[in-house]
Amino acid sequence: MPMHLYLSAGGTILSAGPTIARLYGKNGLIGLDFFATFEIRRPVGISGPADLARVAGARLIMLPLQTDGLSLRGVALPLAGAGGGMLLNLSFGIGVVEAVAHYRLTDADFAVTDLAMELLYLMEAKAAVTDELRQLNLRLQGARDAAEEQALTDTLTGLRNRRALDMTLDRVIAEGQSFGLMHIDLDYFKAVNDTYGHAAGDHVLREVGQALMSETRKMDTVARVGGDEFVIVFKDLADPGRLSRIADRIVARLSLPISFEDHSCMISASIGISISTDYDPPDPERMLDDADQALYASKKAGRGRAQLHHPAPRGDGDPCLN
Question: Ranges for the GGDEF domain (predicted)?
């Protein structure tokens, strides 16, 4: 009984188990007045030996007065032939976890019939399982996020794909953001494929993707929507002059030779631009169609240039391109 207390008829502690004694360190419990050392919370009204004898066999809830709020459970029984002495057998109850951690208790500090250590093993197992489940959920969430990211990414260039573009357009329109839409088509790309092979074409597309990313902001969306077609959404940018200057930089950038093995691949870019503030309300399909019209106007004008699309004034049949 490593948690026992043996009291004299007057309430003096005559013997204490090694585990309960550890709570009091070097000063020990022997010779102390039990009722000045422990407070019995339940049953209420226990303040002396006679009261304790009256509740013999009942469950006690006790608070050691010289410890940090540690609650004990126990039972008191009179000892026959002990001159009115009492034997108390105590346990930590639900506070066993805190007691083990605070006093560094081990299995040797508990009675062989005490299930405290089994309880601790179960709690540790539960904590381990809970942690493993949490780690598994994190891995599953990471795999889900990676799958969603892959579903929105063009595998060749690493840019956004058409699905991601549609989601971006729906979001910026729903949020009421103004934006510019730029449709880019590569000129002479077929000649690169036919002359140097598809490996060269793939290399050119990747280089174009990198060039477009370097000419845009992190908040912009650059998507590959076809074999050699790209669309850029410029969030919070609806100024025609700025969009035209960006388009001119892209045209100049993509007119430079792209090296592949021992070859110089020459392409150019034709660009069409539509702006959300020209529409009330903006419609993604219409804006894409209008940017496409502006793009083909660029091709007809000689390729390697950009055109802005403006909706036709009311009563006019054709849009105005410049």
Answer: 177-311
